[in-house]
Amino acid sequence: MVYKTIIDQAYDPVRKKKYVRHQSLPFCSEEHANHHQWSCEG
28 φ, ψ to 5°? Predict the structure, then answer.
């Protein structure tokens, strides 16, 4: 398993402003992580 931190911008409708959220997501391999593929085949 490879863990990569994905940074994306989300909009907060309550505060009416954008915020950046960090997600550490598990990937099958480094190759999958580079392509942002979350599903594991096989």
Answer: -70, -45
> For residue 33, how many other CB atoms are within 10 A of its CB?
18
- State pTM to two decimals: 0.39
Average pLDDT of the residues in 3-18? 90
Domain span at residue 11? Answer: 2-34
Q: Is residue 40 part of a domain?
A: no
Write down the pLDDT at residue 13: 93
Query: For 1-42, what is the HEC assignment?
Result: CEEEEEEEEEEECCCCEEEEEEEEEEECCHHHHHCCCCCCCC
